[in-house]
Amino acid sequence: MSTTHKAHCLILPYPMQGHINPMLQFSKRLQSKDVKITIAPTKSFLKTMKELPTPVSIEAISDGYDDGGLDEAGSYAVYITRFKEVGLDTLSQLIQKLRNCGCPVNCIVYDPILPWAVEVAKKFGLVSAAFFTQNCTVDNIYYYVDKGVIKLPPTQVDEEILLPGLSCTIETSDVPSFVSTPESDILVEMLVNQFSNLQKADWILINSFYELEKEVIDWMANIYPMKTIGPTIPSMYLDKRLPDDKEYGMSLFKPMANECLNWLNRQPISSVVYVSFGSMAKLEAEQMEELAWGLKNSNKNFLWVVRSTEEPKLPKNFLDELASEKGLVISWCPQLQVLEHKSIGCFLTHCGWNSTLEAISLGVPMVTMPQWSDQPTNTKLVQDVWEMGIKAKQDEKGIVRREVIEECIKLVMEEEKGNVIRGNAKKWKELARNAMDEGGSSDKNIEEFVSKLMTIS
């Protein structure tokens, strides 16, 4: 190994955009502290990438479906089983290869959705760190499901659930939602299995920051040696200590950056509703229609990301009738640059954890329309714990109606309650930056992780 690097971390992400981005950001932090990084996505994931990060070295492993990953496998059950078999083997080969070429690995940082990575680390005598890409409250819920205390999906409607460390009670509608189907059951099992051999990991890292979830983190730390190392978003939006770190650097979609930013530059300060449901969520056509008219009726300027596969669901003539100054619909955008823009007044979001952390870090109030997985829990925290957003409630058909969307946007952007929400958003932005800045809670944890790595290497 070269003299400049005292330790070498192999990063093993679960092959999904929302899981890779936080691990990539953490890698850049480690690299800035002289740790050598090799990230090992799957071959199938690399094939879908529109752009790749330059600063870290990439070595692919196989999930057994090199052409199409999960889609090729056809179901989570088949995919996860095969990924374990082939992944164990190809990860071992990669560690051996790096050792043979004089660049031995000291540590595997892995996504606990792939719990078998710990076994590989043990086999080679390496240190292991489990990296949870979701927040501590959500991890806490999966922990309780693993222990048999909570059921997912919940069977009773509106039953109250008490979680140690959480200041408010949560209802069944606030826990991660999965429709009860064999495919979803496997998904829940996969998320719960994150705890199956966690006691074997040397470190447990959480993509959150201490001030955001103090009580839950303190409580979980009694069971596992948890350390917060987030928010894992590019440094230039937080502490600015990594001057080249402006983008995640890995993307499934090509952002229409100029078009978006030029349009935003023409809008008044805090006047625009930014709408995006991330890289995966698929809305029903009826929901798309309600959202379209809710935005139009709010009379606010809006920037709406509609992926090209989702565009056919827009109401007929909606795009033709849209005055370009009033609204812009684009297929993908550089979300951090948008959220940071002074013309943005609120973020209408599905409340995926990465989007939520970005909004917190950039101090943008939220209107939330959670779809599934951890999003209902994130929404609960945004509205009732951090008080920097409001949930647009669904009707009995599961659709958020246009009047509700319009009302929520106006509440956040115009009304008295909106002032409180905007004030809290500013407060959390400050705390997020402090956590990552020199001597902050997450910065100290990263420093401690690196200095321990240096002593074992």
Outline:
The chain has helices at residues 17-32, 43-48, 69-73, 76-100, 117-123, 136-146, 182-192, 214-221, 257-265, 285-298, 318-321, 335-340, 353-362, 375-385, 402-414, 416-436, 441-456; strands at 7-12, 35-39, 57-58, 107-110, 127-132, 160-161, 170-171, 203-206, 226-228, 272-276, 301-305, 327-330, 344-349, 366-368, 389-391.
What brief labels describe this structure?
457 residues, alpha/beta, seven-stranded parallel beta sheet, 15 strands
Helix content: 40-55%
Taking strands numbered 1, 2, ... along the chain, how are they ordered across the largest sheet? 3-2-1-4-5-8-9
The overall average pLDDT, rounded, is 93
Structure classification: alpha/beta
Taken as a percent bin, the fraction of beta residues is 5-15%
Number of helices, counting only DSSP H or I runs of 4 residues or more: 17
Contiguous runs where pLDDT drops below 50 for at least 5 residues: none
- What's the end-to-end separation, in Å? 11 Å
How many β strands by DSSP?
A: 15
Cα-atom radius of gyration: 22 Å
- Global outline: globular
Biggest beta sheet attributes: 7 strands, parallel
